[in-house]
Amino acid sequence: MSIKIKKTETREAKELKEIKKEVEKENQRFPKVKPKKKVEIDEWREVVFDNFPELLIPAEVGLSVVSQLLIKDIKNPFALVYVDVPSSGKTIVLNFFSTVKELIYTTDDFTPASFVSHYSNTKRKDIAKNDLLPRIRYKTLLIRDL
Predict the structure, then answer these.
(1) Containing H/E element for 142?
(2) For the segment 12-25, what is each residue's pLDDT rounded down to a tens digit?
């Protein structure tokens, strides 16, 4: 007797698959991301400053890194490392961006070997499950602790 379990995808997973298909179809450099609500930069700054005044500048720097995905012809990736004493707000700033799944890939489990697995017996369709590179394409890689 065999039992089949049907996996159901979440709405977010379906949306991400659709975005990936659209990107591959149009051979774009970055995904078309339509915000749920349009927010002007001054309004964004005001909200951050009202809630976390000491984190406005680090948040703006983080936003500029994520925004680089939207600039055409940028060839080299940019790395930003927040360095400060414990409980200084580094994780809070990173959490500002971690919910934007279309532009951010968040992981806490990271090693240099995770970029490419080098398993020769891996099927092409399974590479995205094992390797980090296909998962961070068109995205900013966010790592909370190195």
Answers:
(1) strand 140-143
(2) 677 677 767 766 66
